[in-house]
Specification:
The chain has 648 residues and is α/β, with parallel strands linked by helices. The protein contains eleven helices and 33 strands. The strands form nine sheets. A seven-stranded mixed β-sheet has the order 4-7-2-1-10-13-12, with no helix packed on it. Strand 8 and strand 9 form a beta hairpin. It is elongated and about 105 Å long. The chain starts with a helix and ends in a 14-residue tail after the last strand.
Length: 648
């Protein structure tokens, strides 16, 4: 941690200066990322022990019963007894199931119901069933277990506070489960705690009952939840405030937003902003999807940022900043309602939530405030790009380290920029129609999605195949580097030709196809905007105007955030002919004189063989440079007109 602090100070300075027009605080996405890579306890390292084992059942519900009473009393032990009833549907014939259960954290005491015996080794709990089960059947096993008095980076108990923190795969430290984000299930959770404790979890508070000095809380989630989003948060003498948000579709129906806080914390702004934020998100995505929501601040063991547990976000102590609330609340739609199916699909969580945080500033500050925050993300990508793609296929089966999975430059900053550039590419109408359709899709809501699912939604709404966009921005690393050129030519009669060449020079990434705006300024003070689609490298565009141009600006609004670009003015040659008539202009980058595009520019080097001019209707080039010693052969019935001599 000490080694991290100097770099963090530099980050504070950078964000404050780049984002000064939006908010004078660290971005919520950065807070979120720091949380996920900086645990004070044991890091939640990925456990890939079940990789390669077919998942032959679908968990439908976890019913957890926990006795946590002693965890709140000095010396605040971390051991507790519990049971877990796992209801599951069989996908293929089986007589046993395997669950994740970390050996160093959990001791399995017994299995019952459909479970008759078990083995627990290598962080895998194998439960033998009472018979063979067949596809479509539903079974339940009851697991009695206890958590050991250990620090495992998932279950925390200290000074009267008990909480859990699980992303990416920490749930297996405190209850046996199939701990992958694709298998979402219902949750029913009861917990016995001292009567002075306020205890919160996912979903709705069904009831709380007293018995002597013990209070038993019962929480239940009516919507499926990923295991890493299952949470319990509790504390002796917790403060609780409730704000009610009225649904847009039915203002008479309200949703409680519960705020749990430590003594002395100021959460006034968070309580004020949450309803307008809920309105904004509901208007642009879909209506708030859960029956309750909330936020809770932790203690010093939760040192950074936030964790978007479904309907109950965890925050660091006194971390009620608007940016952090905006980011974590966005996850209730993107990450919680619709969860990444695998860790290779993490863009659907963090890229989206980071973009939404920026989009929140558009409500109060307009597009300029939103774009200023997006520029901040682009700067963070360029300053920290490690050179891998947003989605790496192997992550679907082998969970990477948290430092890789939650790399800020890629998962957050680049992920956000890619979503912005999709907005620019599609236009607002199609973009928000896509987001709304994605959010409303009954096959995805409260379930898991892949990036391909979102891509197909884009294709459906836009009516075009945008596979190219995802291939280059999501599945390929790095970004385009442009070395563009333009040339103005007076062609007489007060007319001017403008020629513009788009050229990519990167060697660590493929060609990037993208739409661009070109701004041309004129001597009389006027200007014009032209939309072009850059489909190939060394692509030349030409326009004629009845007034003198003075300047050409490439992407004047910097909407294609992830690029490096230079532009120079002067005569250029888009192609150099090598002399082979079979050369394919479009594919090889060379010039086929039989298919010379009108107004293209070509250079005939002395090293080339004799160039035949074969167009019977003549040839019109923007410029042709014939080096000394090169030969041009003009075929019969073809006239070659020399319009100028190149001067060295």
């Amino acid at each position: 941690m000490k080694k991290l602090l100097p770099n963090l100070c530099m980050t504070f300075f950078l964000v404050i200066n780049l984002n000064a027009q939006v908010n004078l605080e660290m971005k919520g996405s950065r807070y979120c990322q720091l949380k996920k890579v900086s645990n004070q306890s044991s890091p939640q390292m990925a456990d890939n022990s079940l990789n390669g084992i077919p998942h032959t059942f679908d968990v439908m519900k976890y019913t957890l019963s926990l006795n946590l009473y002693q965890c709140y009393l000095s010396p605040y032990p971390k051991n507790f007894s519990a049971s877990n009833v796992v209801r599951f549907r069989i996908d293929s014939t089986l007589n046993f199931i395997k669950l994740n259960a970390v050996n160093t954290s959990l001791t399995i005491d017994s299995v019952r119901m459909a479970g008759v015996s078990f083995t627990h080794a290598g962080n895998v709990l194998t439960i033998n069933l009472n018979r063979a089960y067949y596809p479509g059947e539903i079974a339940e096993v009851k697991i009695s277990y206890h958590h050991k008095n250990v620090s495992d980076g998932a279950f925390y108990a200290s000074a009267g506070m008990v909480f859990t923190d699980c992303e990416p795969e920490g749930a297996r430290n405190w209850f046996p489960c199939w701990d992958k984000p694709s298998d979402k299930a219902l949750l029913d959770l009861t917990a016995k705690v001292p009567s002075t404790v306020k205890f919160a979890s996912n979903g709705k508070l069904m009831d709380s009952t007293f018995s002597a000095d013990t209070l038993t809380y019962h929480w239940a989630s009516a919507q499926n939840i990923a295991t890493y989003l299952v949470v319990l948060t509790s504390k002796i003498n917790y403060n609780l405030n409730i704000v009610y948000w009225h649904k847009l579709s039915n203002p008479g129906d309200s949703v409680p937003i519960r705020f749990y806080s430590n003594p002395g914390e100021n959460l006034g702004n968070a309580k004020t902003v949450i309803n307008p934020m809920n309105d904004w998100y509901s208007q642009h995505f879909c209506e708030h999807p859960f029956e309750k929501n909330g936020f809770a601040t932790m203690n010093s063991q939760f040192a950074w940022g936030g964790m978007e547990n479904q309907t109950l976000t965890s925050l660091c102590p006194n971390c009620w900043s608007e940016s952090l609330i905006a980011h974590e609340f966005a996850h209730q739609w993107f990450g919680d309602m619709i969860t990444c199916a695998t860790w290779a699909d993490i863009w659907l969580n963090e890229g989206f939530a980071t973009w939404v945080e920026n989009f929140w500033w558009e409500k109060s500050g307009g597009y300029a405030a939103y774009k200023n925050s997006m520029n901040n993300d682009a700067a963070n990508y360029f300053s920290g790009n490690p050179g891998w793609a947003i989605s790496v296929p192997s992550w679907a089966t082998t969970t990477p380290s948290t430092n890789t999975l939650f790399n800020y430059a890629i998962t957050y900053a680049k992920g956000s920029c890619v979503l912005h550039m999709l907005r620019y590419t599609l236009g607002d109408s199609l973009f928000f129609a896509t987001i709304q359709s994605y959010s409303a899709d009954s096959t995805l809501r409260f379930n898991a999605a892949t990036i391909s699912d979102f891509k197909e939604k884009v294709n459906l709404i836009a009516g075009q195949d945008y596979t190219w966009y995802f291939t280059q921005w999501i599945y390929s690393p790095n970004h385009p580097v442009y070395s563009n050129q333009y040339f103005f030519e007076n062609i007489g009669n007060s007319n001017w030709d403008v020629r513009f060449l788009i050229k990519q020079t990167q060697t660590n990434a493929p060609f990037f196809k993208m739409p661009f705006i070109i701004k041309i300024q004129f001597q009389n003070g006027a200007d014009t905007l032209i939309s072009v689609m850059n489909n190939k490298n060394y692509e030349e565009f030409q326009w004629t105007f009845g007034k003198q141009p003075t300047n050409l600006i490439f992407d004047p609004g910097n909407e294609v955030l992830l690029k490096q670009a230079t532009i120079t003015q002067g005569l250029f040659y888009a192609k150099i002919w090598t002399g082979a008539v079979s050369d394919d202009w479009n594919n090889s980058g060379n010039w086929n004189p039989a298919e010379v595009p009108v107004n293209e520019s070509v250079k005939i080097p002395v090293s080339a063989v004799t160039m035949p001019v074969v167009r019977t209707n003549g040839m019109s080039c923007g410029a042709m440079l014939i080096e000394d010693g090169a030969t041009v052969t003009v075929l019969p019935a073809v006239t070659l007109t020399i319009q100028g001599v190149f001067q060295k």
